[in-house]
UniProtKB/TrEMBL annotation:
Protein name: ditrans,polycis-polyprenyl diphosphate synthase [(2E,6E)-farnesyldiphosphate specific]
Principal localisation: endoplasmic reticulum
Biological pathway: Protein modification; protein glycosylation
InterPro entries, per database record: Nus1/NgBR, UPP_synth-like_sf
SUPFAM superfamilies xrefs: Undecaprenyl diphosphate synthase
Localisation per UniProt entry: Endoplasmic reticulum membrane
Keywords for this protein: Endoplasmic reticulum, Magnesium, Membrane, Signal, Transferase, Transmembrane, Transmembrane helix
Any one Gene Ontology cellular component term annotated for this protein: endoplasmic reticulum membrane
Similarity section: Belongs to the UPP synthase family.
Listed EC numbers: 2.5.1.87
Cofactor(s) annotated in UniProt: Mg(2+)
């Protein structure tokens, strides 16, 4: 009896200490990130460009497609817009945001506005999941493709393929043809790098056929990603040896 009570008391104490420590650690991280953002804002455009070039010198390989899994947190449009701009700066051609709850999808117009007001006029952002997708021929400058995904997109792609299989009497379906059809519906190439936001690692029903060779890193929150930490993740990715199933 006494041992059980003692165990519960020790467990409660340990849990309380951990909770307080986690809260303090999160608060300190938020303050540091805020200070870094403020310091960056006071830099002149020339100083910002020099800082950017110094950071990018650390990266020797960038992903073609970066995907961001938002997890349980509510989307921060400002921070997500920063990721789009940083991908433009590092020449990443595709970025997708997976929000299984569908909140970002509902705010996509606001998200687009947040990106447009921050990006350079010379940059071109192609929105694949927007009704107002735009393409420019003869475009000169940096270009990036952006897509917002939800859990429904994953389910709908499977349902669509199932209907295609059931109606295609003259066509034989194998593993390769099914995989090709799913990728075609996805539009983007398979993601090379994925950032999973949250305390625990979970794919939140992300289309599994797209992430067979994706390198995943976890981040506490999309709000905690700074340009320096973003570059650090790119450096980690560039040092990975992706064998592509070999």
């Amino acid at each position: 009896m006494w041992s059980a009570c003692l165990f519960r008391a020790l467990f409660f104490l340990a849990h309380s200490i951990y909770t307080v420590f986690e809260y303090i650690h999160g608060a300190v991280d938020s303050v540091i990130n805020a200070l870094v953002a403020v310091c960056h804002e006071v830099l002149s455009p020339t100083e910002k460009n020099k800082q950017l070039q110094r950071e990018l010198e650390k990266v020797n390989k960038t992903p073609v497609h970066l995907t961001v899994l938002l997890g349980h947190e509510e989307p921060s449009l400002k921070d997500l817009a920063n990721l789009v701009l940083w991908c433009l700066a590092t020449r990443i051609s595709f970025i997708s945001f997976y929000d299984y709850k569908g909140t970002l999808k509902k705010k996509e117009e606001e998200f687009r506005y947040e990106v447009d007001k921050k990006k350079s006029k010379a940059d071109h952002v192609i929105w694949h999941s927007s009704l107002h997708s735009t393409y420019k021929n003869g475009f000169i400058g940096k270009k990036i493709h952006v897509k917002v995904l939800t859990e429904e997109d994953s389910k709908n792609s499977v349902a669509s393929l199932t209907r295609e299989i059931s109606l295609g009497k003259d066509r034989e379906f194998g593993i390769e043809s099914v995989s090709h059809s799913l990728r075609k519906q996805f539009e983007f190439p398979d993601p090379d790098l994925g950032l999973v936001c949250g305390k625990t690692f979970s794919l939140y029903s992300y289309p599994p056929w797209q992430v067979r060779v994706t390198e995943f890193f976890t981040v506490k929150s999309v709000r905690s990603i700074t340009f320096s930490s973003f570059v650090e993740d790119l450096v980690r990715y560039s040092n990975c040896d992706q064998r592509l199933g070999k």
